[in-house]
Amino acid sequence: MFDPRFIDLLTESVGEADAATALKALEAEPSVSIRLNPAKLQECPFQDAVPVPWSPYGYLLKERPVFTLDPLFHAGAYYVQDTSAMFVGHLFRQIIAPLQEGLCVLDLCAAPGGKTTDLAASLRAHDGGKSLLLANEVIRSRYAVLRGNVASWGDERVGTVSRDPSAFGNTPLFDVVVADVPCSGEGMFRKDPKAVEDWSLETVDFCTARSRRILSGIWPALKEGGLLLFSTCTFNRKENDETVAWAAAELGAEVLDPGPQEPAIRTQNGYLMLPGLVPGEGQYAAVLRKNGTPDPVRKADPFTLFRAERPLEPTDDLPRWEVERETALRYLHGDALVLAPDAPRGPICLTFKGLPLGPAKNLGTRCNNLYPKAKRIKMDIR
Q1: Do both 99 and 227 map to the same domain?
Q2: Beta carbons of 243 and 182 less than 8 angstroms apart
Q3: Which terminus has fewer CB within 10 Å in the chain: N or C?
């Protein structure tokens, strides 16, 4: 059962009719969706998938497959992401469309990497790889997940760091900052029962204050005239509209109106994807422009300045050997392999449907499995 105070705050934030729709939807099973990596895959690999209207790469699936047993998933061919979360990428593509090439973008609260990879694909489409994307996650355990997902995605124009927002300093470096801030998680209620248990008005107030500290900390690193794309996976006005209004007034910004964004609800200062009105979970997003005159000049290389880690592709120069699904899963599981007699000897890269899985060393009588132990499939692959 939901906390009555949550129901009251939801009703106050979105109105009685939409609140009733959302509450009914929150009792249903969550949807399942993926977003393709356009550099690796152009067609959805799952049957009967429905395109997501607000994402050129998104697909809503009929049922949830076992992603762990799909080599394409491990090859970074697609990312499992909620359709509502894809709305942030949708807004991002709109706001960068009129901007110059060679942007410097910061994804401030980036783990686990869903929005990072969406931003990366969007920047590639914007200028063919001239822009830089720095993905940051302050929590070290979550940073490891972010780094792994960025590495699987495989875009060398994306770097990862783990810093407190205030550690980016006072030099205005970034044309765009995307801040998907930690929140009370109302949009996770269908997927995480613990989120329902942990919800309280005190948590809402804590998250509101924390979001404002995060925005204050990063504000000096955003260029004058730069854009802030603010988002949460929660519904309430305190963490959403009121925080955006605070940022505009206290930090110095204009709240922008990119126009109607159906099926999102237009709130006072942003947009809300609400379960029941959309197939996915909750997502709020708003856009602000920092006061001042835009400066298109890149002040410094943020990768060098902040010692960013970048995706390494140690298999690029290796001979490739294509394997079928069973061998691919055995490789990803960490099993010993024996390849066909005509397979190249020595260091090689195993591929599945043309996509690299990782390195191995073929000795002929056996093939040493060099897939990283931390990434190996733990479940039974039979």
Answers
A1: yes
A2: no
A3: N
Domain count, the chain: 2
Question: Under a CB-based contact definition with an 8 Å cutoff, are residues 34 and 82 in contact?
Answer: no
Burial code (b: 16+ CB inside 10 Å, e: under 16) for 134-162 equals bbbbbeeebbbebbbbbbbbbbebbbbbb
Question: Would 198 be classed as within a structural domain?
Answer: yes
The tokens describing 34, both together, are 């993926």
Q: Tell me the C-alpha distance between 83 and 281, whole Å.
A: 8
| Whether 103 and 174 share a structural domain | yes
Q: What is the model's pLDDT at position 31?
A: 96
Q: What is the pLDDT, as a whole number, of residue 89?
A: 98
Question: For 329-342, how does the pLDDT look when each residue is reduced to its tens digit (9 = 90+)?
Answer: 999 999 999 999 99
Tokens of 376: 């190996």
250 and 329, same domain (yes or no): no
Single out the catalytic residue among 44, 104, 109, 233.
Answer: 233
Q: Identity (one letter) of the amino acid at 314?
A: P
**Tell me, what CATH number does 346's domain have?**
2.30.130.60
Q: Which helix (H) or strand (E) holds 50?
A: strand 50-51
CB 267 within 8 A of CB 277: no
Q: Please check whether residues 269 and 366 belong to one and the same domain.
A: no
Q: What is the rounded average pLDDT of the residues 38-61? A: 97
Q: 255-266, pLDDT tens digit by residue?
A: 999 999 999 999
Active site residue 109: no
Name which of 35-49, 104-118, 291-305 the model is least confident about: 291-305
Q: What is the pLDDT of residue 139?
A: 96
Residue 200 located in a structural domain:
yes
**Structural domain containing residue 202:** 84-305
State the Cα–Cα distance between residues 31 and 280, nearest whole angstrom: 6
